[in-house]
Protein backbone atom coordinates (compact mmCIF):
# COMPACT_ATOMS: atom_id res chain seq x y z
CA UNK A 1 0.00 0.00 0.00
CA UNK A 2 1.33 3.45 -0.85
CA UNK A 3 1.63 5.90 2.00
CA UNK A 4 -0.47 9.04 2.03
CA UNK A 5 2.65 11.07 1.26
CA UNK A 6 3.56 9.03 -1.81
CA UNK A 7 0.00 9.23 -3.11
CA UNK A 8 0.08 12.98 -2.64
CA UNK A 9 3.45 13.17 -4.39
CA UNK A 10 2.22 11.15 -7.37
CA UNK A 11 -0.67 13.58 -7.78
CA UNK A 12 1.58 16.66 -7.89
CA UNK A 13 2.14 16.19 -11.60
CA UNK A 14 -1.42 17.50 -11.99
CA UNK A 15 -0.82 20.50 -9.71
CA UNK A 16 1.72 23.27 -9.22
CA UNK A 17 3.05 21.90 -5.93
CA UNK A 18 6.76 21.11 -5.92
CA UNK A 19 8.40 18.71 -3.46
CA UNK A 20 11.93 18.96 -2.04
CA UNK A 21 13.99 16.16 -0.50
CA UNK A 22 13.41 17.14 3.17
CA UNK A 23 9.66 16.75 2.62
CA UNK A 24 10.01 13.01 2.00
CA UNK A 25 12.39 12.19 4.86
CA UNK A 26 11.19 9.02 6.55
CA UNK A 27 9.85 7.73 3.23
CA UNK A 28 13.07 7.50 1.17
CA UNK A 29 12.97 3.70 0.77
CA UNK A 30 9.32 3.72 -0.24
CA UNK A 31 9.90 6.50 -2.77
CA UNK A 32 12.98 4.71 -4.16
CA UNK A 33 10.84 1.70 -5.00
CA UNK A 34 8.28 3.80 -6.87
CA UNK A 35 8.78 4.79 -10.50
CA UNK A 36 8.07 8.48 -9.99
CA UNK A 37 9.59 8.66 -6.53
CA UNK A 38 12.81 7.03 -7.73
CA UNK A 39 13.14 9.52 -10.57
CA UNK A 40 12.56 12.40 -8.14
CA UNK A 41 15.28 11.23 -5.74
CA UNK A 42 17.73 10.68 -8.60
CA UNK A 43 17.23 14.21 -9.87
CA UNK A 44 17.56 15.75 -6.40
CA UNK A 45 20.73 13.82 -5.54
CA UNK A 46 22.53 15.49 -8.42
CA UNK A 47 22.29 18.91 -6.71
CA UNK A 48 21.67 17.94 -3.05
CA UNK A 49 23.97 19.31 -0.34
CA UNK A 50 25.97 16.99 1.90
CA UNK A 51 23.41 17.10 4.76
CA UNK A 52 20.58 16.10 2.43
CA UNK A 53 22.64 13.26 0.97
CA UNK A 54 23.54 12.05 4.47
CA UNK A 55 19.89 11.89 5.50
CA UNK A 56 18.86 10.03 2.34
CA UNK A 57 21.78 7.66 2.73
CA UNK A 58 20.95 6.86 6.36
CA UNK A 59 17.48 5.76 5.32
CA UNK A 60 18.69 3.75 2.32
CA UNK A 61 21.61 2.02 3.99
CA UNK A 62 19.72 -0.79 5.73
CA UNK A 63 17.76 -1.62 2.57
CA UNK A 64 20.58 -1.15 0.08
CA UNK A 65 20.75 -4.73 -1.21
CA UNK A 66 16.98 -4.97 -1.56
CA UNK A 67 16.96 -1.73 -3.56
CA UNK A 68 19.83 -2.89 -5.77
CA UNK A 69 17.56 -5.67 -6.99
CA UNK A 70 14.54 -3.43 -7.43
CA UNK A 71 13.34 -2.29 -10.85
CA UNK A 72 13.32 1.36 -9.73
CA UNK A 73 15.42 1.30 -6.57
CA UNK A 74 18.56 0.23 -8.41
CA UNK A 75 18.75 3.63 -10.10
CA UNK A 76 18.82 5.43 -6.75
CA UNK A 77 21.73 3.26 -5.57
CA UNK A 78 23.53 3.88 -8.86
CA UNK A 79 23.07 7.62 -8.37
CA UNK A 80 24.74 7.39 -4.97
CA UNK A 81 27.77 5.77 -6.55
CA UNK A 82 27.90 8.74 -8.90
CA UNK A 83 27.19 11.59 -6.44
CA UNK A 84 27.82 10.17 -2.98
CA UNK A 85 31.01 10.77 -1.02
CA UNK A 86 33.77 8.18 -0.77
CA UNK A 87 32.56 6.88 2.60
CA UNK A 88 29.03 6.33 1.27
CA UNK A 89 30.37 4.52 -1.80
CA UNK A 90 32.53 2.32 0.43
CA UNK A 91 29.55 1.42 2.63
CA UNK A 92 27.37 0.52 -0.36
CA UNK A 93 30.12 -1.60 -1.87
CA UNK A 94 30.57 -3.23 1.53
CA UNK A 95 26.90 -4.17 1.53
CA UNK A 96 27.58 -6.23 -1.58
CA UNK A 97 30.16 -8.35 0.23
CA UNK A 98 29.32 -12.05 -0.01
CA UNK A 99 26.62 -11.37 -2.59
CA UNK A 100 28.53 -10.25 -5.69
CA UNK A 101 27.80 -13.41 -7.71
CA UNK A 102 24.09 -13.21 -6.97
CA UNK A 103 23.92 -9.47 -7.65
CA UNK A 104 25.90 -9.80 -10.89
CA UNK A 105 23.40 -12.29 -12.27
CA UNK A 106 20.31 -10.35 -11.21
CA UNK A 107 18.55 -8.25 -13.86
CA UNK A 108 18.70 -4.90 -12.07
CA UNK A 109 21.48 -5.38 -9.53
CA UNK A 110 24.00 -6.19 -12.27
CA UNK A 111 23.73 -2.52 -13.29
CA UNK A 112 24.58 -1.45 -9.75
CA UNK A 113 27.63 -3.74 -9.69
CA UNK A 114 28.84 -2.16 -12.93
CA UNK A 115 28.29 1.35 -11.55
CA UNK A 116 30.14 0.43 -8.36
CA UNK A 117 33.12 -0.77 -10.39
CA UNK A 118 33.21 2.61 -12.12
CA UNK A 119 33.27 4.67 -8.91
CA UNK A 120 34.90 2.77 -6.01
CA UNK A 121 38.62 2.75 -5.31
CA UNK A 122 40.84 0.04 -6.79
CA UNK A 123 41.09 -1.77 -3.45
CA UNK A 124 37.31 -2.30 -3.35
CA UNK A 125 37.20 -3.11 -7.05
CA UNK A 126 39.58 -5.98 -6.32
CA UNK A 127 37.47 -7.20 -3.39
CA UNK A 128 34.27 -7.24 -5.45
CA UNK A 129 35.92 -9.00 -8.37
CA UNK A 130 37.59 -11.65 -6.21
CA UNK A 131 34.19 -13.00 -5.12
CA UNK A 132 33.42 -14.02 -8.71
CA UNK A 133 36.35 -16.44 -8.96
CA UNK A 134 34.56 -19.67 -7.91
CA UNK A 135 31.69 -19.04 -10.37
CA UNK A 136 33.48 -17.12 -13.10
CA UNK A 137 32.40 -19.25 -16.08
CA UNK A 138 28.80 -19.28 -14.86
CA UNK A 139 28.85 -15.47 -14.63
CA UNK A 140 30.52 -15.06 -18.04
CA UNK A 141 27.75 -17.13 -19.66
CA UNK A 142 24.92 -15.42 -17.79
CA UNK A 143 22.66 -12.95 -19.60
CA UNK A 144 23.23 -10.34 -16.88
CA UNK A 145 26.58 -11.41 -15.49
CA UNK A 146 28.39 -11.09 -18.81
CA UNK A 147 27.89 -7.31 -18.66
CA UNK A 148 29.64 -7.23 -15.28
CA UNK A 149 32.60 -9.22 -16.66
CA UNK A 150 32.83 -6.88 -19.64
CA UNK A 151 32.97 -3.90 -17.29
CA UNK A 152 35.65 -5.60 -15.17
CA UNK A 153 37.81 -6.20 -18.25
CA UNK A 154 37.46 -2.54 -19.21
CA UNK A 155 38.13 -1.02 -15.78
CA UNK A 156 39.92 -3.25 -13.28
CA UNK A 157 43.74 -3.30 -13.28
CA UNK A 158 45.13 -6.45 -14.89
CA UNK A 159 46.85 -7.75 -11.74
CA UNK A 160 43.45 -8.29 -10.09
CA UNK A 161 41.84 -10.35 -12.87
CA UNK A 162 44.30 -13.20 -13.48
CA UNK A 163 41.59 -15.76 -12.72
CA UNK A 164 39.33 -14.30 -15.43
CA UNK A 165 41.98 -14.47 -18.12
CA UNK A 166 43.04 -17.95 -16.99
CA UNK A 167 39.48 -19.25 -17.34
CA UNK A 168 39.54 -18.31 -21.05
CA UNK A 169 42.50 -20.56 -21.88
CA UNK A 170 41.45 -23.50 -24.05
CA UNK A 171 37.86 -22.20 -23.91
CA UNK A 172 38.05 -19.37 -26.45
CA UNK A 173 36.13 -21.29 -29.10
CA UNK A 174 33.53 -22.45 -26.58
CA UNK A 175 32.96 -18.90 -25.35
CA UNK A 176 33.11 -17.29 -28.80
CA UNK A 177 30.24 -19.52 -29.94
CA UNK A 178 28.15 -18.69 -26.87
CA UNK A 179 25.52 -15.95 -26.99
CA UNK A 180 26.97 -14.06 -24.02
CA UNK A 181 30.52 -15.39 -23.94
CA UNK A 182 31.19 -13.96 -27.41
CA UNK A 183 30.69 -10.44 -26.02
CA UNK A 184 33.25 -11.02 -23.29
CA UNK A 185 35.84 -12.31 -25.78
CA UNK A 186 35.34 -9.17 -27.86
CA UNK A 187 35.97 -6.98 -24.80
CA UNK A 188 39.24 -8.81 -24.13
CA UNK A 189 40.29 -8.12 -27.72
CA UNK A 190 39.55 -4.43 -27.13
CA UNK A 191 40.78 -3.86 -23.58
CA UNK A 192 42.94 -6.84 -22.62
CA UNK A 193 46.68 -6.71 -22.08
CA UNK A 194 48.75 -7.50 -25.16
CA UNK A 195 49.85 -10.85 -23.72
CA UNK A 196 46.21 -11.82 -23.18
CA UNK A 197 45.28 -10.82 -26.72
CA UNK A 198 48.06 -13.00 -28.13
CA UNK A 199 46.70 -16.07 -26.28
CA UNK A 200 43.11 -15.35 -27.30
CA UNK A 201 44.06 -14.69 -30.94
CA UNK A 202 46.05 -17.90 -31.21
CA UNK A 203 42.96 -19.92 -30.25
CA UNK A 204 40.70 -17.85 -32.49
CA UNK A 205 42.86 -18.54 -35.55
CA UNK A 206 43.07 -22.21 -34.61
CA UNK A 207 39.26 -22.47 -34.63
CA UNK A 208 38.48 -19.84 -37.27
CA UNK A 209 36.75 -22.28 -39.62
CA UNK A 210 34.33 -23.15 -36.82
CA UNK A 211 33.75 -19.55 -35.75
CA UNK A 212 33.13 -17.95 -39.15
CA UNK A 213 29.81 -19.75 -39.89
CA UNK A 214 28.64 -19.79 -36.26
CA UNK A 215 25.59 -17.86 -35.08
CA UNK A 216 27.71 -16.01 -32.49
CA UNK A 217 31.27 -16.81 -33.50
CA UNK A 218 30.86 -14.81 -36.71
CA UNK A 219 30.70 -11.63 -34.62
CA UNK A 220 34.05 -12.46 -33.03
CA UNK A 221 35.55 -13.15 -36.47
CA UNK A 222 34.20 -9.81 -37.70
CA UNK A 223 35.67 -8.11 -34.63
CA UNK A 224 39.11 -9.49 -35.47
CA UNK A 225 38.82 -8.17 -39.03
CA UNK A 226 37.45 -4.80 -37.95
CA UNK A 227 39.57 -4.02 -34.88
CA UNK A 228 42.36 -6.60 -34.72
CA UNK A 229 45.98 -5.96 -35.61
CA UNK A 230 46.76 -5.87 -39.37
CA UNK A 231 48.43 -9.28 -39.06
CA UNK A 232 45.44 -10.88 -37.30
CA UNK A 233 42.94 -9.31 -39.68
CA UNK A 234 44.94 -10.57 -42.67
CA UNK A 235 45.01 -14.09 -41.25
CA UNK A 236 41.23 -14.09 -40.87
CA UNK A 237 40.75 -12.65 -44.36
CA UNK A 238 43.03 -15.36 -45.80
CA UNK A 239 41.00 -18.08 -44.05
CA UNK A 240 37.78 -16.69 -45.51
CA UNK A 241 39.25 -16.31 -49.00
CA UNK A 242 40.33 -19.95 -49.14
CA UNK A 243 36.71 -21.10 -48.93
CA UNK A 244 35.00 -17.97 -50.20
CA UNK A 245 32.19 -19.56 -52.23
CA UNK A 246 31.07 -21.76 -49.33
CA UNK A 247 31.17 -18.94 -46.78
CA UNK A 248 29.47 -16.46 -49.11
CA UNK A 249 26.41 -18.70 -49.36
CA UNK A 250 26.10 -19.14 -45.59
CA UNK A 251 23.68 -17.00 -43.56
CA UNK A 252 26.20 -16.00 -40.87
CA UNK A 253 29.52 -16.49 -42.63
CA UNK A 254 28.45 -14.21 -45.50
CA UNK A 255 28.52 -11.32 -43.01
CA UNK A 256 32.16 -12.13 -42.29
CA UNK A 257 32.89 -12.21 -46.03
CA UNK A 258 31.36 -8.75 -46.45
CA UNK A 259 33.47 -7.45 -43.55
CA UNK A 260 36.56 -8.90 -45.24
CA UNK A 261 35.71 -7.03 -48.44
CA UNK A 262 35.32 -3.77 -46.50
CA UNK A 263 38.65 -4.08 -44.68
CA UNK A 264 40.82 -5.93 -47.24
CA UNK A 265 43.95 -4.41 -48.73
CA UNK A 266 44.16 -3.94 -52.50
CA UNK A 267 45.97 -7.26 -52.88
CA UNK A 268 43.56 -9.11 -50.56
CA UNK A 269 40.63 -7.63 -52.45
CA UNK A 270 42.11 -8.90 -55.71
CA UNK A 271 42.31 -12.43 -54.30
CA UNK A 272 38.71 -12.22 -53.07
CA UNK A 273 37.60 -11.02 -56.50
CA UNK A 274 39.42 -13.91 -58.19
CA UNK A 275 37.86 -16.43 -55.80
CA UNK A 276 34.37 -15.02 -56.38
CA UNK A 277 34.46 -14.53 -60.17
CA UNK A 278 35.19 -18.10 -61.30
CA UNK A 279 33.07 -18.77 -64.40
CA UNK A 280 34.46 -21.97 -65.93
CA UNK A 281 35.03 -22.68 -69.65
CA UNK A 282 31.63 -21.33 -70.67
CA UNK A 283 31.19 -17.70 -69.53
CA UNK A 284 27.40 -18.09 -69.82
CA UNK A 285 27.22 -21.15 -67.57
CA UNK A 286 24.48 -20.48 -65.03
CA UNK A 287 25.94 -23.13 -62.71
CA UNK A 288 29.41 -21.60 -62.46
CA UNK A 289 30.62 -20.52 -58.98
CA UNK A 290 29.98 -16.86 -59.85
CA UNK A 291 26.47 -17.57 -61.13
CA UNK A 292 25.69 -19.66 -58.06
CA UNK A 293 26.76 -16.75 -55.85
CA UNK A 294 24.55 -14.31 -57.72
CA UNK A 295 21.62 -16.72 -57.44
CA UNK A 296 22.17 -17.32 -53.74
CA UNK A 297 20.09 -15.37 -51.18
CA UNK A 298 23.24 -14.47 -49.22
CA UNK A 299 25.92 -14.72 -51.89
CA UNK A 300 24.37 -12.00 -54.05
CA UNK A 301 25.07 -9.47 -51.28
CA UNK A 302 28.72 -10.48 -51.36
CA UNK A 303 28.86 -9.72 -55.10
CA UNK A 304 27.12 -6.38 -54.54
CA UNK A 305 29.64 -5.52 -51.82
CA UNK A 306 32.50 -6.44 -54.15
CA UNK A 307 31.13 -4.23 -56.91
CA UNK A 308 30.92 -1.34 -54.45
CA UNK A 309 34.46 -1.80 -53.11
CA UNK A 310 36.45 -2.65 -56.24
CA UNK A 311 37.96 0.13 -58.33
CA UNK A 312 39.36 0.51 -61.82
CA UNK A 313 40.55 -2.58 -63.68
CA UNK A 314 39.68 -4.94 -60.82
CA UNK A 315 36.06 -3.81 -60.83
CA UNK A 316 35.89 -3.97 -64.63
CA UNK A 317 37.22 -7.53 -64.50
CA UNK A 318 34.32 -8.57 -62.23
CA UNK A 319 31.81 -6.65 -64.36
CA UNK A 320 33.06 -8.44 -67.49
CA UNK A 321 32.59 -11.81 -65.79
CA UNK A 322 29.05 -10.92 -64.67
CA UNK A 323 27.78 -9.45 -67.96
CA UNK A 324 27.27 -12.74 -69.88
CA UNK A 325 25.16 -14.23 -67.08
CA UNK A 326 23.32 -11.34 -65.45
CA UNK A 327 20.48 -11.13 -67.98
CA UNK A 328 19.84 -14.92 -68.27
CA UNK A 329 19.87 -15.04 -64.46
CA UNK A 330 17.00 -12.55 -64.22
CA UNK A 331 14.61 -15.30 -65.22
CA UNK A 332 15.69 -17.63 -62.41
CA UNK A 333 16.35 -15.33 -59.42
CA UNK A 334 14.22 -12.83 -57.57
CA UNK A 335 13.88 -9.36 -59.01
CA UNK A 336 15.51 -7.39 -56.20
CA UNK A 337 19.05 -8.92 -56.16
CA UNK A 338 19.07 -9.21 -59.95
CA UNK A 339 18.22 -5.53 -60.33
CA UNK A 340 20.82 -4.51 -57.72
CA UNK A 341 23.61 -6.40 -59.48
CA UNK A 342 22.40 -5.14 -62.87
CA UNK A 343 22.70 -1.55 -61.63
TrEMBL record:
GO terms for cellular component: cytoplasm. The keyword NAD does not apply. GO terms for molecular function: mRNA 3'-UTR binding. Pumilio repeats lie at residues 23-58, 59-94, 95-130, 131-166, 167-202, 203-238, 239-274, 285-320. Residues 1-343 form the PUM-HD domain. SUPFAM superfamilies: ARM repeat. Pfam families: PUF. GO terms for biological process: nuclear-transcribed mRNA catabolic process, deadenylation-dependent decay. It is found in: Cytoplasm. InterPro entries: ARM-like, ARM-type_fold, PUM-HD, Pumilio_RNA-bd, Pumilio_RNA-bd_rpt. Keywords: Cytoplasm, Repeat, RNA-binding. Belongs to the PUF3 family. RNA-binding nucleolar protein required for pre-rRNA processing. Involved in production of 18S rRNA and assembly of small ribosomal subunit. This is Pumilio homology domain family member 3.
Amino acid sequence: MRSKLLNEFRQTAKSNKRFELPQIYGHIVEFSGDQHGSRFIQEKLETANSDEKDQVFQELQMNAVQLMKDVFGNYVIQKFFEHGNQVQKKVLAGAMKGKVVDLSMQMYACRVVQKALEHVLVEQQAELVKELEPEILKVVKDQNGNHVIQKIIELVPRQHIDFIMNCFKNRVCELSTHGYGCRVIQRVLEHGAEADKVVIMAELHQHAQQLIPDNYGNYVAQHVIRKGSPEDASKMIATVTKDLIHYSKHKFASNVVEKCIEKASIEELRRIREAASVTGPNPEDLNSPLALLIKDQFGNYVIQKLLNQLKGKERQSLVDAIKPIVYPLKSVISKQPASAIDR
